[in-house]
């Protein structure tokens, strides 16, 4: 892609790293590159007995809290905790307005965050204030084709679109992919579920999802409304999951046209699949009208595992009525529950309690008695999608 950024903004991640490293070198810091494969930081600075891990990010948009939390997670884990006394985070496009206040409120004593601008670093924390400058990258939105779009879509309300969108994002984040969640539902439920203060609807709604295994860095989820999506530079996360409005016409046609994949949650109940799976068929048809390329997947949500016989009958019924359409449109599939499904679970049912008791937003992945249905099911779904799509091959830095 040609470089269309303003001159003073480094052209690439590597160029930014080089410029920042040179800057510190000329300031009497010793710059040490990480052993072999870079992990969690770009280089180390040494000076007067201090050892500082520096992360340099050429994000196209403003950096959010989750992206810093990801760095903090690295600093507090394994070898990094022994090795580094501090972590410095430097980005080329500034920070979301709440980042500096958040860092101050958390009293992060081993962290410094700054913006690289015109060959200098402007420290936003601890010595600066909130960096409210507009992101320079706003002029240079990444090309639409650099993202993988997944729409979670169906014309029925209350079948789990928002729940599925959020936790699928969580599963991708657990496997190391940063995700943008685009909240297309005018109710803005998703945004509220990810805000630190549900009343501050314009605040940064981002979440860091720590890794499950020690060889991963974890990843971020950032929730954006449509206006933010249009006005921002375009997030750096390559996977964009859209939580759609159940009113089909309320979803902007140009966004529906971008979907590479569509997930259509459905409940396996007689009413849920009433009228011969009509709702699913209507949704397939609607999307196809505006989007010829999207691969669509109908997914069972709220599955009750101990009702084998009933489930079998309902699945048979559903498959029979989807058969004709699925034959005519080879890009559509019904995901059979033995391949992937989302089971009914109390933690999904009560997900969002943090809004009521004002706790920190989190996904419903916590284990009870050593197990979590949602964790297992959404990881299984992510694996199914990675197997049946190109998702996962597109999240590499370009
Ligand atoms: N697998 C599940 N198990 C238990 N409750 C669920 C499950 N999926 C969704 N729910 C609950 O169903 C309700 C509707 O889900 P929601 O995601 O808001 O649907 P939609 O976005 O389609 O309107 C919510 O109360 C949610 O907690
Ligand atoms: Mg919803």
**CATH architecture grouping of the largest domain:** 3-Layer(aba) Sandwich
Q: How far apart, in Å, are the first and last alpha carbons?
A: 9 Å
Mean pLDDT: 86
Q: Indicate the CATH class of the largest domain.
A: Alpha Beta
Explain how this protein is built.
- It is a single chain.
- The protein is an alpha/beta fold and 398 residues long.
- The protein has two domains: 13-140, Trna Endonuclease, Chain: A, domain 1; 144-388, Rossmann fold (3-Layer(aba) Sandwich).
- The protein is built from 13 helices and 15 strands.
- The chain has helices spanning 13-25, 65-75, 78-83, 99-105, 161-174, 189-194, 226-231, 253-256, 274-290, 308-328, 346-349, 353-357, 373-388, and strands at residues 30-32, 43-47, 50-57, 86-91, 111-117, 120-125, 148-152, 179-183, 205-209, 219-225, 239-243, 261-267, 295-303, 332-334, 342-343.
- Strands 7, 8, 9, 10, 11, 12, 13, 14 and 15 form a nine-stranded mixed beta sheet that branches.
- Helix 5 crosses helix 13 and helix 9 (274-290) packs parallel to helix 10.
- The longest helix is centred in the C-terminal third of the chain and has 21 residues, at 308-328.
- The chain is elongated, with a radius of gyration of 22 Å.
- The structure holds adenosine-5'-diphosphate and magnesium ion.
- Adenosine-5'-diphosphate binds at residues 157-163, 301-302, 342, 344-345, 348-349, 351.
């Amino acid at each position: 892609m040609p470089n269309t950024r303003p001159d003073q903004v480094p052209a690439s991640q590597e160029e930014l790293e080089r410029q920042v490293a040179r800057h510190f070198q000329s300031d009497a810091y010793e710059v040490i590159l990480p052993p072999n494969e870079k992990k969690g930081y770009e280089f180390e600075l040494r000076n007067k007995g201090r050892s500082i891990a520096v992360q340099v990010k050429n994000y196209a948009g403003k950096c959010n809290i989750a992206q810093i939390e990801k760095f903090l997670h690295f600093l507090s884990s394994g070898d990094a905790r022994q090795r580094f006394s501090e972590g410095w985070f430097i980005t080329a496009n500034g920070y979301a307005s709440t980042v500096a206040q958040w860092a101050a409120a958390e009293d992060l004593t081993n962290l410094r965050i700054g913006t690289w601008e015109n060959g200098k670093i402007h420290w936003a924390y601890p010595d600066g204030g909130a960096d409210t400058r507009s992101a320079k990258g706003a002029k240079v939105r990444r090309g639409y084709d650099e993202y993988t779009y997944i729409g979670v879509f169906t014309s029925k309300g209350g079948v789990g679109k928002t729940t599925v969108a959020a936790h699928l994002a969580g599963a991708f984040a657990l496997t190391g992919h940063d995700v943008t969640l685009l909240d297309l539902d005018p109710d803005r439920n998703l945004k509220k579920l990810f805000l630190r203060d549900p009343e501050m609807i314009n605040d940064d709604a981002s979440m860091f999802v720590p890794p499950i295994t020690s060889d991963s860095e974890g990843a971020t989820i950032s929730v954006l409304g449509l206006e933010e999506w249009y006005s921002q530079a375009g997030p750096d996360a390559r996977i964009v999951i859209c939580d759609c409005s159940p009113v089909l016409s309320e979803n902007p046609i140009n966004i529906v046209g971008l979907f590479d994949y569509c997930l259509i949650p459905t409940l396996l109940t007689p009413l849920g699949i009433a009228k011969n799976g009509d709702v699913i068929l209507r949704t397939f048809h609607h999307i196809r009208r505006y989007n010829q390329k999207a691969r669509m997947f109908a997914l069972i949500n709220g599955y009750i595992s101990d009702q084998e016989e009933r489930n079998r009958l309902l699945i048979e019924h559903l498959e029979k009525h989807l058969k004709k359409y699925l034959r005519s449109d080879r890009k559509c599939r019904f995901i059979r529950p033995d391949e992937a499904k989302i089971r009914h679970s109390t933690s999904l049912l009560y997900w969002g309690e943090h809004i009521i008791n004002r706790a920190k937003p989190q996904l419903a992945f916590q284990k009870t008695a050593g197990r979590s249905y949602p964790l297992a099911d959404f990881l299984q779904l992510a694996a199914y999608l990675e197997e049946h799509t190109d998702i996962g091959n597109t999240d590499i830095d370009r």
